Amino acid sequence: MIIPYRTVVSIYIEILCVIKFISFILKPLLIKNTMDNSMENEFFHCRIEDGILYFDYKENVVIHLKDAVKIVADRLLWQQGKPFPILCNTKGIRNMDKAARWYLAREGSHLATSVALISANPLSRLLANIYLFSTSPSVRTKVVANELEGIEFLSSVGQCNPK
After folding, report:
1. Please, what is the Cα angle at 97 between 99 and 52, to 5 degrees?
2. Do 33 and 46 meet the contact criterion of CB atoms below 8 Å apart?
3. Model-level pTM?
4. How far apart are CA 40 and CA 162, in angstroms?
5. Mind listing the pLDDT tens digit for each residue in 88-131?
């Protein structure tokens, strides 16, 4: 008997959701908080500054679905239920599989009021825009060339929380 690909993916995602739930219980022991307003794990550094969550992927990260689940779970745990606009620097990503991209587009937007994806070169911006078009993120999302453009977008959405 052959199991359809979609069924296998659905089962895999359900298992990862259970892992994500369990991670909320165990992550306080595993997450390295560098200060009250910043944290990091093996995939990213993030900090909150002027009401914006700055999210920077570490250099040369490769992200699979299980990694995407961990990234989102760690960020959600750290945010402690507080929504923020997110400025995400994708420069450090070396590769990401399709399932991880889909997961981050959907679940990665939880507790995000809006998202600006920094993509520094024109080719990666084009690919990021195609990705946005094909995955339809659940919050307002824009691909920007630099941090300043990202801050302007997030501010224009009007959901930044001043200190």
Report:
1. 80
2. no
3. 0.75
4. 23
5. 999 999 999 989 988 988 888 899 999 999 988 787 788 778 87
Pairing of strands 38-40, 52-57: unpaired
Separation of alpha carbons 25 and 49, rounded Å? 27
pLDDT digits (tens, 9 = 90+) for 122-154: 877 887 788 778 777 788 999 999 999 999 999
Domains of the chain by range and CATH?
5-157 (3.30.750.24)
Q: Using CA of residue 147, residue 148, residue 150, residue 155, what is the dihedral sign? A: positive
* Alpha carbons 111 and 98: distance in angstroms, whole number: 22
- Do the strands 112-118 and 84-89 form a parallel or antiparallel pair, or are they unpaired? parallel
Residue 106 one-letter amino acid = R
